[in-house]
Write the structure tokens for this entry.
Amino acid sequence: MREDDRSSWLKRMGPAADAGWTLSGSVIGCLLIGYAVGEYYGKNPAATLIGLLVGIVVGFYNLAKIMWRKQ
């Protein structure tokens, strides 16, 4: 594979990689924050679920922003 082909392929894959890392990072991050809050306040599983739901909402919001961004 030539160097030009490789760099153009990486440029095209950039937004998809960005979207994947953003979605997974926000879900995992908010889930861990929810778990930590639940542990701090007496093992409340509702905090973990709330953290998970917030992470999913934030992750899909950021995913939509990345996908609808003009190139």
